[in-house]
## 1
Amino acid sequence: MSLFSSLQLASNTLQIQQIGLQVVGQNLANASTPGYSREEVVLAPGPTQQVNGNLLGTGVTIETIKQDVDQFLNQRARTALSDQSGSALSSQTYQQLESIFGALNSPNLNTALTGFTSSIAQVLNSPQDVATRNLAVLKGQTLANQINSYASQTNQLRANLNDQIVGDTGRVNGLLTQIGKLNVQIAQTEGGAAGASQAVGLRDQRDQALSSLAGLINIRTAQQNDGSVSVYNGGDYLVAGSEVRQVKVDKSQDRGQTIASVRLASTDSPLDLSSGEIGGLVNSRDGVLGGFLDQLNSFAGALASEFNKVYSTGQGLNGYTSLTGATPAGDVNAPLDAAALQTTPVSGSFQVLVHNKQTGLTQTTDIQVNVNGLAGDTTLSNLATQLNAIPGLAASTTVDGRLKITSTDSNQQFAFSGDTSGTLAALGLNTFFTGSDASSIAVNQVVARDPSTFAASAGGVGVDANVAQQLAEFLTTPLATHSGATIADLYGQVSSNLTQNSSVAKSLSDSAQAFYSSLQGQQQALGGVNIDQETINLLQYQRSYQASAKFISTISDLLHTLVNL
Amino acid sequence: MTSITSIPSSRVSNLSSSQRLLAQIQNAQLGLQQLETQISSGKRIVLPSDDPAATEQAVGLNRLIDQKMQIKNNIDTSQSYLTQTDTALANVSNLLSSARSTALSVIGTTADASQRQTAAQVISGAIQQLSDIGNQNFNGRYLFAGSQAGLAPFRADGANVKYSGNDTALSSLSDLSQLFQSNVTGAAAFGALSAGIGGTVSLTPAVTASTKLSDLNGGRGVSPGSIKISDGVSTTVVDLSHAVTVGDVAASIVAHPPQGRTARADITPTGLSISLDAAGGGNLSITQDGNASTAADLGILNSTHIGPGPIVGQPQNPLLTLTTPLGNVIGARAEVFVPSPGTSTNIVLQAKRNGAAYNGYTVNLIDDHTVAVGHETVSYDTVGKSITVDVAGGLTTAKNVVDAIDNSPAAADFTAALDPSQFKNDGSGAVALSSATTAGGGGALLDQAAGLQITNGGQTYTIDISHAQTVEDLLNSLNGSQASVLAEINPTGTGIDVHSRLSGSDFAIGENGGVTATQLGLRTLTGASQLSDLNHGAGVPTASSGADFLIQRKDGYQLRVRLSGAKTVQDAIDKINNDPNNQIAASKVTAQLAASGNGIVLTTTDTSSVSPFAVIEQNGSTAAESLGLVPAGRTQSNPSTASAGAETIAGKDVNPQETTSAFNALIRLKTALQSNDTAGITRAVGLIDSSSNQLNLTRAELGAREESLTAISTSLANEQNNLQSSLSSTVDTDIAAAITQLTALQTSFTATLQLTAALSKLTLLNYL
């Protein structure tokens, strides 16, 4: 034991305290850096020496400079982040949809529906007036346009989300590459000795990248012994050490749109997208918007077919002189229930009225429709033959499978009544709406061009307004095909489904946000910088430094004394 | 959205505390903004998902409010029509009472012909005014045109007035699913359509395979469902929920017999008749499957039947519809069913015409080995009533037999067809040797050759119905004629009603040499006509004692006819025909209804010429005049006319019909005034009184309707208020609550800001 060795001890101490100060400085500098984990110098007493049989310490050494991180907590936080960003997106989408379709918006579908039926009730007030019928047609167009616009706006939203998915996929690839590179650098820096002095800055960068990645897709990570981290999605690894598997975008068709799905580039297997932003986007596009579109389509289909069923049994102020079905049959020689029509006729009958404008007389003919699977089922072509046999009418099928009926006498018009088979509605003859879903629903051009054919009568051309009575009550008439639900109920289902789901999505998103925040709080509690704590550390290192300097000065005095002997 | 995240228990970092403070400030600001939006927009709910339950309620309320608003609109519009109608009817009422005073002022003996001529001028003006009122148009609607509201309903037709509207109500919604009539038709207000002729004869059509189920039971239809058919051993369920016609029902039953059995379903003119093969025995029963009353509605519900059948169904009373074939209307065709074992084997033979004459024809299928398949021979014997078909036994198919009969002389009277009720019958099965007899024919064929005669407005029109196939064709023949009539199926669907559209003259429907009008129940003077109804209700006055009139026969005998006790026209005819002194064929005078037109006709074929054939009134009785046999104002009939060895005295039609309209009353009055006919004037005053009464009834009913609409309108306004306030409490901001909340939030926000400032300053460094 010599004075020089004491000096050596003191000099070590000074250096170590300086390192301590350096770390404090680093912590203070990053006090506001998000994602930064506090570093800590772990000190240990130096090795002891045996001097003259006594064990003496050799001062202080630095065991390690480590980060205060909990890998498991980080993993949980990343999962929570995935959930949070996924659910936030669904909720946002619902809110956007609500602002389009909202039941309390003005105008909304509810008001369009009641506006339409009210305009029909108005026909009852002045059945002789063509202008009132024209208004009913216009209100019908407003209703159809409104539904079309919901469909197109929803599709626009889906297209936007789809673009976002494509963009996000690019970001996923960027992050995967970055994590792979960082894995290599960390392994090199740490020399494969985990738990030793660690490559703190690089790990911070990697944690940041992993968090960003978790925000996009749901991932699971596993820390490897060499300091690298493996990233998994579902059962597939995305990063293992330096090896990275890229993802790609695959195009397919859904509900009339091109949609992108995300797959592993190497194996073509789809990614697990149960959470994360991309998961949220896919769910929003297919589940939220797609589901809404499905409901809207079935609502529009029910509206059109049920309205037509009633409407097609009526007659207008004027009959038709020429009429072509709005709906083509796939096969004119197949029984009508197998002819690929939009709605399926049943066995029954309808009547064709041939009305002479001059004499005011009407000739009624019963047309039987048999689709009971027995011999002699009605096909479109033999329907045309039956109609053609009616004096004053010429009927044929067109090349594209529509039924065309023409009056052969300029004084005669024709109309239809009493359809119990649903054939007229199915063929688009004497119908009000055409189309079968939200995008295609429209007012039949025939009645749009000539509103006087608006079929309000039940007893003959221009006779009464009994069909309009039923149509005016159409919204609240129970439908046998929908287990007694009314069109108002069906609208209520679409609207309340959306509202309830939106509400649920919002609270899910809120709770995911709260959970993520509390995990972030825990991360901060463990690894966040507290300036007061650092200040105390600063004081400690300062005092130790001062004490060691004093020790050196004392040793120096001793040496001086010794030298001056 | 204020979510509080937990504070970690171990350590606090500066970053997290500043983030927490920031989050709190943001939450407070967000809350303030939400409240600000609520207050400024007045709406509590910005997005529906803010309060799904309230939104749903609001959707329902909004819809109800819109619907009620439309109803309010309906009532307002209709009230304006009804008020206008009421005003118009008040004018009619005034017009009628002034016409009445005019008439009364010239009815007495003090008035002379020229005064009556002047009065006729006044009435002529009144008719014009009435016509103007009748054609009143308000807001595009002809008020009294019925549902043909786009056309002026009244038009002068010579001296008469023709109504071209109808008696159909226009209705609007006065509440959800509640209709009210928003018009008064010309028929109801003015009596512009005569009472319907018809209804004395039921024209319920025969049930056929193509009769729609919905027309059965007088239009009540058949409730869809399934029936159970059992032979006592096994039961089968026949689903009839998709059946549309009676033929479908029959086919379904035949296609689903109880296991191991063969079922037969015959369609008789009144309904269905179901049986099982006799060989299998057992007791056929037909019961309901489930709750629907399908079996009962079809009239074949029977759980206590003994034996394999047939269960003969209850009469089904199908509605008379526009498309009902005329052949099914007043009778049925004879039919026979020729069954053979196997599939696609059954044949049905049906007479081409109604009537019992075609019953009892026997169809024999006889084996003849000289016959080749496809060359079967048929012999038709109308005297022995048989149709014999020589077939190649075991080879000839049902289709061959059908073709053979349809190409034989039998085709003149019968139609052979494959039984449509046999499952998928294409006629390919071989027939068995059998014989069967036609039955079920009845009634008569409608006399389409003769047609009808309609007298209206002084003109006689012949209606040709020879080309009519369906009831609608018949109606079109009537409606399309110049006779100014409205023919329609009566409201119960059991017959045809014919109304006159013409006011001011007599209207009658008679025969045109046949029996058409009688068959259809349309003849206005029939044997059943009450004598008291004749001559516009004046009846047939009879002498208090002694004969009413004499019929002077050509042999010089005077037949004394005393009508006392006779109630109907037939009674009067019988009095003449059954008189004990009028039974010798050579000298007999026969009374009967005219073969053409209407009226009583006396005929004799006596060749003696002792005295001229005549009717002579007796004892001051005008009965002969009232029966149309003696011209008005005379005591003896016109000379008889001779033709084809017979002499006839043709009576005039004494049961003319007329509308009960105000127009009729005024026109009749005008005519009577012009012809200085005081009896006519008196009758016209009576007509004015009755049409005034009718008008007053209509006005009273109209007033009641207006009153109820006003009541509905008032309650609607209340309802509307209630709905609006419910809606408001559901979706509108409670301003007081929102402002209180805002103040509280402001306070807490201020506190948060102060706290943030204070906490941010706290650091150890300050104390070093």
Note: Chain B touches chain A through 85 residues (CB under 8 Å).
## 2
Amino acid sequence: MSEALKQSLDISMFWEYRAVFLEGLTFNCLVFLCSAVVALSVGLGAALLRINRLWPMRWIGTLHVEVFRNAPDYIMLVWVHFVLPLLIGILIRRRVEFHPFLSAVLALGLVYSGYFAETFRAGIQAIPQGNLDAGRAFGMSERLILWRIALPQVVRRMLPEALNLFVSMFKATTIVSLIAVPDLMYNVSMVIQQEMRPLPLYSGAALTYFLIILLLSSGVRLFSERWRRKILA
Amino acid sequence: MGNWERLVWNQRDVLLAGLGVTVEVCAIAFIVAIIGGLALCLVRIYVAPLRPVAVLLIEFFRDTPIFVQLMWVAYVWPEIFGFPSTFFNAGWLALALQSSAYLAETFRAGIEAVPRGQREAAFSAGMSQAQTFTRIVLPQVTLATAPSIVNQFTVIVKSSTLISVITVPDLMSQSQKLVNVWYEPIEILTATAGIYIVFVFLISSAGKLLADRLLRRYGLNAS
């Protein structure tokens, strides 16, 4: 047992492959960045639908939020990768295949758009009605009111919550290895297949992710506390 | 429509067997997570010498992605600690570890929200520390954290899809087996996604209902 413990604590094998793993980590970051863009833009769209005057619009927004907030991200990943291209293929009568990277970005982006939509909505609804009325009284268009009056306040209010969501999203990027996006976890399992030594490699991967996410989440915690004191005081 | 009948309805036994395993794993993980979370949180607050250990454990399990943890528990733990001996046990154990860390923080917030004056009142009424905890603190914490605890169950269900990767025959795994047999993913995977979405939706709706009830009956702010 102590031999196994020593082996697992000996991260030198993990260190040997650092170049491959660093490359994998950049894929984690890439997937994260792209799906964050998707999540933010789709989330804002869904939030605007949810507060629309017309009930069918509201209904679509609510459906979007409920479906994606309640869907496990792994099944969404698999669904987007294997089912969505077939459905599109049937529509345009041509064979379609998604690159794993595209599927990963779409799936994570969609799942988290549900969470972001609720954050956006809460932020928008917290804006005093008087602000919007004042904007209208000045003859601003609805779009201008959204960009100049609503969104700046929404962003200030939702920033701590959004940062927490981003941290969860970064954690979720580890599952993209399951559809063969060459991220850190994927490279780790590839090396394990060659070296047949899961002990130090999985431990190294766990430790790496732990350190990165610990750094991120403590940064977020510190920032949020200050931000809340400054903005919402 | 014929495809739906052939691929989903006629295969319902396979899918239901998978759903059964999913429910089983999640239920075990949930119960273990509540016990483990309470233990971690009590150690963190009341057992000063062990506090750094509890903090480290909580931070480690909170800040490691569940997939990484699952692989780690499934492939590394058996060689270091000699358990879990099966992938089924590794599955619920990994889910329970992560959730117990989240729940520990939930419980801590709940305990720290109990006004200090109440504890002092209990002390001056001659209650022991254990009595104060079980009679004054725990009932309030249970009520205040009940919605978050239900929410954590939905997180467990969502993460449980990953145990299919370590070959536990849960719903996700069964549906992927069906896809590999029939090569027709559209109906099977859509139905599986639908089952998961409805399942999680039902749990979280129950949680919201519970939160509203508690709020109305006890005037508690469920956060």
Note: Chain A has a mean pLDDT of 89.
